[in-house]
Amino acid sequence: MRNIYFVRHSLRDFTIRDDRNVPLTSDGKNLARKLVPFFLDKNIEKIYTSPYLRAVQTIEPVASQLNIEPVLFEDLRERNVGKWVENFSEFSRNQWNDFDFKLENGESLNEVKKRMMTTYNDLLREQDSNVIISGHGTSLAILFHKITEGKFGFREFNEMKMPDIYCAEYKNNELLTLDNIRY
């Protein structure tokens, strides 16, 4: 039995529009530190993270406490919207209603799913121990949608918190459960 723990990043600074370099707010950093006790007894052997600053800052306190250097994976990044979107709820709804919908220079959810599944399958083959994957709401939600055969959908995506923890339990490389963890 092994567990893959997914951590959605903590509270981000919405005043910064450079998606890759958006830091956590001070409240976001405090919430990230509160993740540490949950992971102390989980026998984590590796931590993988999106290279985006908010995902790295979210998992840093856990990584530091566990003395594990996080491995940055470009393909764990958030979905590229293409341009700043004022009405993000409407944009998200449009994407979930049509997985091929995207803005100019942006990614569709099908494109996100493809890169996330490729990376996830590579990580599953590489690791047979408990690991953490730190990432983003949309990219993780699309991964969850795929591995649960559609059971994780738009409603569940909208219920994700910042930060949030999900645990996928595997036995013989077969997904048994995917649960939202209340820590």
Automatic annotation (TrEMBL):
One of its GO terms (molecular function) is phosphatase activity. GO terms for cellular component: cytoplasm. Gene3D superfamilies: Phosphoglycerate mutase-like (3.40.50.1240). It comes from the Bacteria. Pfam families: His_Phos_1 (PF00300). SUPFAM superfamilies: Phosphoglycerate mutase-like. This is Histidine phosphatase family protein. It comes from Vagococcus fluvialis.
